Amino acid sequence: MAYTQNDFKKGQPRWCPGCGDHFFLASLHKAMAEIGVDPWNTAVISGIGCSSRLPHYMATYGMNTIHGRAAAIATGAKVANPDLTVWQVSGDGDGLAIGGNHFIHANRRNINLNMILLNNRIYGLTKGQYSPTSPRGFVSKSSPYGTVEDPFRPAELCFGARGHFFARAVATDAPGTVEVLKAAYEHKGASVCEILQNCVIFNNGTHDAVYDKAGRAKNAIYLKHGEKMLFGENNEYGIVQEGFSVKAVKLGEDGYTEADVLVHDAKCEDNTLQLKLAEMEWPVALGVIRDVEAPTYDDCVTAQIEEVKAQKKYHNFAELLETNDIWEVK
Amino acid sequence: MEIKEKDSVVVRFSGDSGDGMQLAGNIFSTVSATVGNSISTFPDYPADIRAPQGSLTGVSGFQVHIGAGQVFTPGDQCDVLVAMNAAALKTQYKFAKPDAAIIIDTDSFGPKDLEKAQFKTEDYLGEMNIDPDRVIACPLTTMVKDCLADSGMDVKSMLKCRNMFALGLVCWLFDRDLDVAFNFLKEKFAKKPGIAEANIKVIQAGYDYGHNTHSSVANVYRIETKNKVPGRYMDITGNKATAYGFIAAAEKAGLKLYLGSYPITPATDVLHELSKHKSLGVTTVQCEDEIAGCASSLGASFAGALAVTSTSGPGICLKSEAMNLAVIMELPLVVLDVQRGGPATGLPTKSEQTDLLQALFGRNGESPMPVIAAASPTDCFEAAYAACKMALEHMTPVILMTDAYVANGSGAFKLPNLAEYPSINPPYVPEELKGTWTPYLRAENGTRYWAVPGRQGFEHILGGLEKDDKTGAISTNPENHDLMTRKRQAKIDAIPVPDLEVLGDKDDADLLIVGFGGTFGHLHAAMDEMRAAGKKVALAHFKFINPLPKNTAEVLKKYPKVVVAEQNMGQLAGWLRMKVDGFVPAQFNQVKGQPFVVAELVENFTQLLNK
Predict the structure, then answer these.
(1) What is the predicted pLDDT for the residue at B229?
(2) Would you say residue A131 lies in a domain?
(3) Between helices B179-188 and B162-173, what is the axis angle to 10°?
């Protein structure tokens, strides 16, 4: 059935004017319309936080649950009802601090969830404390003298948990966001999409380098599987391999030519170079960074049930009772 | 030799953790149940993961009570104690009656064994003041080796059969037919006929040894069978019965059974049991933590499954957050709490009833939740079925409480006929409400409707934030919150539960004993003993704790004296005092991690009567 984004819209969002969540929501509506799964076969499940309000603005089934548990709740929903398309939405505090354990295990199990991580590097709803993605030295209400801890890099956690899909988009970049959301849906298994999103009130400017189109032209690279990794306003830069790592170079300088530029391989099982790309600070890698097929947990659970059903001779409660040592008292 | 007719006898098998005492005990229970005796069993495991062999902490016990008529408990003390080594004799002798027969393997009482068991001299019987005439001392290990000399087995494998020799000896002592034991072993080792054959040979050798050397024993017991209830039976532990109850309820409701769980003693066997039954479509997910166990179950419930999560007290602490979410979202969920000793890690393998107030109140906000407690191993089936039915029909999380004693103990379970069980009808949202339905629209009994994803026109959002009664949108309106709080409470209060039953001298008791959950057998046995001594005593045992049965106040106020006996510091007594105006009972509280001792109950209750 053909849908428009209006078929997925509901209510009036209550985020601050200019919040990155508004942009992301619009892209999600659009992506869902293009994907075409019925709203009644779709569930959007979030935790707690600004971004976790999102399911309230979806005309699908939804749950706005408790802090940190969205991935665990989504796991149960998907395993119990594999026909549902499940989107799990969390912020960086919800998904990586209180919910860090569920985040890594959902990736490890490879449950077919589309996992959205709206990363603004701050706790917004509680009004401005540093989050697990805030950089070292970050000054906030709860760190007036700067933090003395290093942040998580979401891709590193995803890859460390043996995740098979990782993509990144900037909330204000609608085409880029729609593209990764659709790729996340297409990927069978846990698909993590890190959305770089700005909090205008408590952490304004955190993603400035790539937040507008001009910035992205200078400071971001759009990765496409099978294409050379070129970037810059005139594609004058490229990503080349250097030793065990990658680096950005200007073509024509230091003897680098287009022939030296690496071709992106999102399907490569070995995640070493994909991780290097995800961790680059300049340029910021956008698009689908890793997209590798692997058996999904929910498929395997269903398959195992079918397999055992075929093997075993008991298929209802009465037959189960008969598998025990039974005696008769007359 | 004298043959003693007895109404009931308690046998305790004990030995090193690796000596196979649980298996020997299980077979003996089955053999006895097969001839129509009533049985009640209790395994007593060491808490250590693997204590050193022969050490005092490594002793494992299995107690079985067999009776001509109904037996309610595994028995306070045993009539026969099997001690497979010196450490077992040292630690388990305290469970033996003064005139108990004691079977020991003299081969396991060498100088090193005695040292490990901390005996000071070689005269271990003298040290413990045990009359040698009561002891059947046999070189059990030597005889097992002799018996299997021609089998071609290595010594290690031979020694694994020692438990069967002891079993054979006990079977002789009770005049039991060995065929049932033989069949049990043939089935258990169907894929290893050599092992089955060796075990059978050793049982027979044990039996024959008893038969041929009977002069060393004072008597042989005979337990006749009375009051047989005809039917087909199986031996079942509480945990297995609980798992079966969940399976039965899912089938009756026509729903997929989903269990989200995390390993925790003493609840893990429920996870093990349900994981086996994929051929019934049971889905089990062993989660990353207790939180996810409960949270994923709630997700499964939202998606339309009968969702269950299983744990023990420490796990409830972690699950309470998602349980609370289930309360406000009004989704069905069954939370199993197999209680153990607390607080914190406490006594993981021991039994208490110390989680009751946690179950009733251990959540933030006004968070009413039904609580059901199983009374015995076989009652776990009924309680689990009732919990699922209640959760599904009233759209609420339900706490099902058992305890380590009930969960690990077993009893003879009359095979249930599912057709005779009440139907389970969740309040699915009627199709004609499409277009006007909102998530907190309620049926007449105050229950909201269930709209499972996949149904067009009923897309909705649930969540942990308070919702408007009418629109289902987030609301911080003070009047609405007050209204929703009352509606959630009224829904639970209106759940129908059976009346409280009074057993014993219900018309003219001088003392009413009150309890809940797993102490039923002990309290019943105490009542029986007191009534046999001419006292007027009754028992009211709670299975439904929230909401309380309608006749609770009437029952509690009817008798001149009431004692609430529980394995905690007075949690049920406190709850009843809160719910029944002016109710001030006497209390009997014990928190030892062990089942009640009937003799202590009788003594205490009798004193109370005489006051």
Answers:
(1) 80
(2) yes
(3) 150
The boundaries of the domain holding residue A88 are 5-211+294-298
Q: Residue A293 is encoded by which pair of tokens? A: 């097929």
Tell me, yes or no, whether A204 lies in a domain: yes
Check A309 against B281: CB less than 8 A apart: yes
- Amino acid of residue B525: A
- The answer to whether the beta carbons of residues A123 and A131 sit under 8 Å apart is yes
Tell if the CB–CB gap between A63 and B247 is shorter than 8 Å: no
Query: What's the rounded Cα separation, in Å, for the pair B523 and B529?
Result: 10
Same CATH topology for B2-223 and B235-420: the answer is: no
Tokens found for residue A200 = 């205008």
Boundaries of every domain in chain B: 2-223, 235-420, 427-496, 502-610
| Architecture, CATH, for domain B235-420 | 3-Layer(aba) Sandwich (3.40)
- Contact present, A192 and A117 (Cβ < 8 Å): yes
User: A96 lies in a domain?
Assistant: yes
Q: What's the CA gap between A287 and A264, in Å, rounded?
A: 11
* B316, two tokens: 């409830």
Whether the Cβ atoms of residue A281 and residue A215 lie closer than 8 Å to each other = no
Would you call A182 helix, strand, or coil by DSSP?
A: helix
Q: If contacts are CB pairs under 8 Å, which of residues 228-257 in chain B contact chain A?
A: 228-236, 244, 247-248, 251, 256
- Give domain status of residue A80, yes or no: yes
Structure tokens at A164: 């098979």
How many domains is chain A partitioned into structurally? Answer: 1
CA angle A115, A117, A118 (to 5 degrees): 140
Hey, are the CB atoms on B244 and A80 less than 8 Å from each other?
Answer: no
Please count the other Cβ atoms lying within 10 Å of the Cβ belonging to residue B534.
6
Name the DSSP class of A191: E
Q: Which amino acid is at B452?
A: V
Residues 6+ apart with CB under 8 A from B297: A76, B258, B259, B260, B307, B308, B309, B322, B333
| Chain B residues 392-421 with CB within 8 Å of chain A | 415-418
ipTM for the complex? Answer: 0.97
Set of chain A residues whose Cβ sits within 8 Å of the Cβ of B288: 72, 101-102, 105
Fold classification of B502-610 (topology level): Rossmann fold (3.40.50)
The domain over range B2-223 is classified in CATH as 3.40.920.10: yes
Mean pLDDT in runs of 10 for chain B (611 residues)? Answer: 73 91 90 87 74 86 90 91 95 93 94 94 93 90 93 91 93 87 88 92 91 62 70 92 98 98 97 98 98 98 98 98 98 98 94 97 98 97 98 98 94 95 98 97 96 98 97 97 98 98 98 97 95 97 98 98 98 98 97 93 97 87
In a mutational test of the A interface, the residue from B66, B288, B476 whose CB has the highest number of chain A CBs within 10 Å is: B288
Rounded Cα distance between A139 and A175, Å, is 33
Give the pLDDT confidence of B76-98 residue by residue, as tens digits. Answer: 999 999 999 999 999 999 999 99
Rounded CA gap, A166 and B459, in Å?
29
